[in-house]
Amino acid sequence: MAAMPRPDDRSDARERALYLLYEAYSKGIAPTDALALQVLEPDQLTVLLVTGVCDNVEQLDAAIAARARGWTLVRMPVLDLNVLRLGAFELAHRPDVPVAVVIDEAVELAKRFSTDDSGKFVNGVLSALVADLRT
Question: Model confidence over 1-40: pLDDT tens digits?
Fold first, then answer.
C-alpha cells in the first residue's frame, strides 16, 4: 500500500501545479502539454491537479466568474485566476480534502506569488464557492 503524502508534499504539489498552469498560460499551450514537456515526471498529485483544472476549466471559470463580484476573469491577475481554479477544482472534485485546507492552501499561494490583496480576494471567492461546489 502506498504511503499517504505528507501535508508538505501536498503543498509542494499545489505549488508545482500553479507553476505549470502559469507556464502553460505564458507559452500559450495547454496545461497538459506543459506537463508533458517536463524533464522529470511530475508527482501524481501535481498531475491530478493540472489535468483536473484543464479538464474542468469551463465549469471552474463559470463558478469563479459567478462569485468574483466586480471582477471579470480577463481582468484578474493570471496567478490569482489559476490559484482560484486550483482551489475550485479541489472544492468540486476532491471531497477528501477539507474545505479549510483548500482555502488555506490557495490563500497562501496567492499571498506568496501574487499581489498584496490577492490573499483576501482568493479567500473571499473560494469561501463563496463552497456552497456552490461542495455538495
Answer: 555 556 689 999 999 999 999 999 999 999 999 999 999 9
Share in percent of the chain as helix, strand, coil (round to 5): 75, 0, 25
CATH of residue 86 = 1.10.940.10
Q: How far is CA 74 from the centre of its chain?
A: 17
* 117 vs 70: CA distance, rounded Å: 15
Range of the domain at 117: 7-133
Enter the C-alpha cell of residue 91.
472544492
CA-angle at 120, arms to 102 and 61, nearest 5°: 60
Give dist(CA 85, CA 79) in Å, integer: 10
Contact of 129 with 90, CB cutoff 8 Å: no
What type of residue is 100? A
Q: Give the pTM.
A: 0.92
